[in-house]
Predict the structure.
Amino acid sequence: MPELQDPKKGADPHAAQAIAVLGQFRLIFKSVRKHFRSVEESAGVSGAQLWVLSEVAKKPGLRVTELARAMSIHQSTASNLIERLEREGHIERRRDPADQRVVRLFLTPAARRAVAKAPGPPEGVLPDALKRLSTEDLVALGKHLFKLTSLLRVRDASGKKTPLSEI
């Protein structure tokens, strides 16, 4: 693994290492934003919407709960994405003939055209890169990110600091 530490003489090694790692996060965020802009310019949908469409394309008739699980998002977030895609004419919701309580998702022809125009990977560059890591690397990364997120604090409207895990 390449050394991330800033080689400047006299610099606090720990602080320099933290800044170098922060630079890696910034590179990740920049890459994600660039990919999402490219998706919107070429396909006319957001990156998250493209991911929804690609999941439904892979499995026509997908249920909202299955979609949320596949994207690792809350079911209400998936529902909001679907509502917008439905309003824009990209998703059709159909009741399951065997169980009218179940709603299944299908792409419209406009959605199929959007998916065909979009640059890959459809789920985005970060999920794609994560899938290409070894299981061992994912486990180690997960442990380190858990430790990092447990240290994050966000101020609410009253100014109180709240752990990220409670948001």
In short: DSSP finds seven helices and five strands in the chain. The two ends are 34 Å apart (CA to CA). Residues 133-167 form one domain.
